[in-house]
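[09:14] KT: can someone run the structure on this one? pasting the chain below
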Amino acid sequence: MERIFAKPFVYSLDGHLDGISVLAKCPSKLAEIVSGSYDGEVRVWNLTRKATLYSMLAHEGVVNGLSYIPNSSKFISCGDDKIVRLWSMANLEAQANKNLNTVANPDSFSPNVIHPVV
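[09:31] RB: done, structure tokens below
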């Protein structure tokens, strides 16, 4: 047990109710990451403040993937519910409440293909 909690353990980001399944690092902001959990929740973190900026139930089931879009303030999440969502940091609160920018096509969904958001 001592090896699990051995130094240099710095800090734990508490907040998810279930285990974290995926992480993504913002390419333009040093202190920003996004995490997805097994219960479908996506959280945006500020590492400097060690706090959650935004939290939303993004998917039904596991969040399988998170990826930032280069040279933008947007990221994509996908989950076991076969839905791909495009999130914009500029209006994240409005999107979290309305499920905007959603693509769902359960018949032809492949995790290696990102369908365009129309």
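[09:33] KT: thanks! Confidence is low (pLDDT under 50) at residues 106-118.
[09:34] RB: yep, looked fine to me
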